[in-house]
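stage 2 :: seqdesign
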């Protein structure tokens, strides 16, 4: 059984490692609900003593850094998961229908969040089985666990990132050009993934606007032809847009299309 070792890594590498472990913990809590997986919960003792070895100070600093990263877990969840695309598309859908605040923001965010859990669940299970669980069982070291946790995360991000966006950040980072996509650093891959998600979400939002825009234009033309210029077209077109959305089972179609648009 190998011992846990802490090599003399640089601060950026340890920060990236702790970030990966924090994301892995979030994904595991998402993915293990149906499997009822249990693992030991570590205890935490706080005391103030004089450090006798440099390693003791390093461990304390790592704990403080990990707690800081856990505070940023919501941002990690938003930027490294399908949440961004889902919530932006649902916002565009609401604007296109012209229903103002219906469904409310809480419903849109909640739906996007649970759909995110559903999409990212295979990634979380793979991280738990190959990285987190062996590390908690002391079968692999911290550095090995981090390397294993990166693989499914990197695979998911690469599948859903455009080549042009990835090339942009590789160029601006002024680093040596990676030989393969798998060699790209997470610090470069994450922002490339985010702008790729935003572009995809805006394209979907544009396509959602077209049928509702046609209804608004037809309604405005009919009202203008009838001389009803004082009657707001939105009051007449809104029931027709709602009827069209219900007849085509819009929530089913949009949710299904979004689920299929991600590669896992």
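stage 2 :: out
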């Amino acid at each position: 059984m190998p011992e846990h070792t802490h090599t003399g890594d640089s601060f950026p590498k340890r920060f990236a490692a702790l970030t990966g472990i924090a994301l892995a913990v979030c994904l595991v809590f998402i993915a293990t609900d149906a499997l009822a997986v249990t693992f030991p919960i570590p205890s935490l003792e706080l005391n103030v003593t004089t450090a006798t070895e440099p390693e003791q100070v390093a461990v304390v600093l790592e704990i403080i850094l990990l707690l800081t990263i856990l505070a940023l877990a919501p941002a990690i969840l938003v930027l490294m998961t399908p949440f961004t695309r889902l919530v932006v598309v649902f916002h565009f859908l609401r604007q296109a229908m012209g229903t103002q605040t219906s469904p409310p923001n809480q419903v849109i965010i909640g739906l996007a969040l649970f759909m995110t859990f559903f999409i990212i669940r295979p990634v979380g299970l793979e991280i738990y089985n190959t990285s987190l669980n062996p590390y908690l069982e002391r079968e692999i070291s911290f550095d090995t666990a981090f390397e294993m946790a990166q693989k499914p995360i990197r695979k998911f991000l690469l599948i859903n990132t455009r080549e042009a966006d990835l090339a942009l950040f590789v160029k601006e980072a002024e680093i040596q050009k990676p030989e393969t996509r798998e060699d790209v650093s997470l610090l470069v891959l994450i922002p490339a993934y985010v702008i790729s998600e935003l572009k995809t979400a805006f394209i979907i939002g544009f396509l959602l606007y077209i049928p509702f825009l046609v209804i608004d234009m037809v309604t405005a033309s009919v009202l203008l032809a009838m001389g009803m210029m004082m009657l707001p077209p939105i009051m007449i077109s809104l029931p027709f847009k709602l009827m069209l959305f219900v007849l085509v089972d819009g929530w089913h179609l949009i949710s299904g299309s979004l689920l299929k648009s991600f590669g896992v």
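stage 3 :: structure notes
- The longest helix spans residues 186-225.
- Residues 11-260 form one domain.
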